[in-house]
């Protein structure tokens, strides 16, 4: 008899639990029910700290990041390339080709350098060292150009690559235009919420003037706070 009672209790408890789960499911369904987004997958644009994989990372918005790049840091980062490259005008090839003017230039830009077959193959697919291409190559050379004879692991830090590419552009590639900033990727741009299209107004319309500004020559956009932040707790007067 007591055995029956025990099973009754267990069964009752299980039923009760199932009931509670059902009720919570229904209730949350009512509370959180929302329309499906008009444009699926818009959160690709949202900054996602969890997306650590480089494959998932959007390429930088060059029009925004290049004028803000730290050229001194870029030059310092070039120390990692200098065992094999120099970027001086008229500089000789070393283990790697001279890199003066490589930004925006053709892949295999040095006629006299013995490039690998892998690089020859790559040139057929992507003939120009644009910003995205350089960025991908410097991130992981052997992954972007499998079989390249540039034996360099790559620079994983995005800001370091941005600084380096900005500095490298100034070594003979000043004529290679920086694209206009993407208004949708400005810090102030509204994230597309509730199915609304991202607001484009308020973003500066940067028309290509045909004349490429030198990187680093853009006016600095330092925001000076109007007033120092108020102290959170007023110190009691000395007694
Ligand atoms: C260990 C030597 C070595 C290091 C270090 C190195 N490179 Fe290279 N790099 C090479 C070689 C060799 C090639 C030619 C690759 C090929 O033919 O496959 C090359 C090719 C390149 C090219 C393509 C040039 C062209 O004419 O198409 C670029 C751009 C480049 N390197 C940039 C860099 C940058 C930037 C760094 C530093 C972050 C760097 N490399 C570090 C050896 C090196």
UniProtKB/TrEMBL annotation:
For bias type Low complexity, the affected ranges are 183-239
Sorted keywords for this record are:
Electron transport, Heme, Iron, Metal-binding, Transport
Read off the InterPro entries from this record. Cyt_c-like_dom, Cyt_c-like_dom_sf, Cyt_c_1A/1B
Name of protein: Cytochrome c domain-containing protein
Q: Which domain of life is it from?
A: Bacteria
Q: Where is the Cytochrome c domain?
A: 69-172
Question: Region Disordered: what ranges?
Answer: 176-239
